[in-house]
Amino acid sequence: MTDARLRRGRGSLAVSFFVQGVTFALLVTRIPAIQDRYGISDGLLPAFLAAVPILAGVASVMTEKVVARVGPAVVLRWAQPFVLLSLLAVGVGSELWQAAVALGLFGLAVGALDASMNMLGVSLQRAYGRSIMLGFHASYSLGGIAGASLAWVGAHWHLSLFVSYLPVVAVLLPLALVGSRWYVTGGERTEDPVAPEESKGSGVVFKLLMPLCLVMTFAYIGDSTVSNWSAKYLQDVLGSSEELATVPYNAYMVTTLLGRAVGDFGVRRLGATAVVRAGAVLAALGFAVVAVSPGAWVGIAGFTVLGLGLSVIVPQTFAAAGRLFPGASDAAVARLNVFNYVGFLIGSPLVGALGDTWSYRGAMLVPMVLVLVTVVYATSFGPRAARYGGGHERPRTVDVG
Question: pTM here?
Answer without folding.
Answer: 0.81
